[in-house]
Design a protein that fits this description.
2 domains; mainly alpha; HSM3_N; 67% helix; 14 helices; 211 residues; DNA mismatch repair protein HSM3 N-terminal domain-containing protein
């Protein structure tokens, strides 16, 4: 099954590459949402890795320059980044880019930043790495507190809660005796105590505590 997925070509990929090239060279070029959506629906963990070097640089450029609603571009970017670990994602979206996306009035840009920050809940070491970016944490909390869109506020709540959970210094909770979706999620996320660095950054940093 995996081999088959890898060898099946992505329909519309060549057209998408040309469209992205056009958007980079002429940002005012109208977006083609259907083309973007059609390619996104075909992406999976197997065929995404070889496409990253080809598509992500242009998508990143377009997100910074397009005068259009970036929602279709953001959706495709989130899908491409889905299998990429937090540390590698930071090579593509640095601290200043995350801050700009969190501050953006466009909900889609907020959701892209939150999708990237959600990866920091993958392990205690990833959460500890995020703690070294206090300005990003500040904007995450600010967006959580002030997002006018329900979808953005709910996503920020989940991201912040998941990061604090994996960073918690207390021992992981025991596995539930009865099936529980929440218990399964906590057990899956926390295999060992966290380092507590995000907790200390949020609750002991005067600037963050004053938000």
């Amino acid at each position: 099954m995996t081999t088959t997925d890898y060898t099946v070509p992505v329909s519309g990929l060549d057209e998408l590459k040309k469209h992205l090239d056009d958007l980079v060279s002429a940002p005012e070029t109208p977006l083609e949402p259907k083309l973007l959506d059609d390619v996104e629906l075909q992406l999976n963990e197997t065929n995404i890795p070889p496409l990253l070097p080809t598509l992500l640089p242009n998508l990143t450029t377009i997100l910074k320059t397009t005068p259009h609603d970036p929602s279709p571009i953001v959706s495709l970017t989130i899908k491409l980044l889905s299998p990429v670990p937090f540390t590698q994602t930071l090579q593509l979206a640095d601290e200043s880019s995350l801050i700009a996306a969190l501050r953006s009035p466009a909900p889609s840009a907020n959701l892209l930043a939150l999708a990237i920050l959600a990866k920091a809940a993958s392990s205690p070491s990833d959460a500890a790495l995020l703690s070294l970016m206090p300005r990003v944490l500040e904007e995450l909390i600010r967006r959580w507190l002030s997002a006018p869109q329900v979808e953005v506020g709910e996503k920020a709540t989940r991201v912040l809660g998941d990061i604090l959970e994996v960073d918690c210094e207390l021992p992981p909770p025991p596995a539930p005796s009865a099936p529980s979706t929440l218990g399964h999620e906590l057990a899956r996320r926390r295999h060992a105590p966290g380092q507590g660095r995000v907790w200390r950054r949020i609750f002991h940093d005067r600037d963050l505590f004053a938000l």
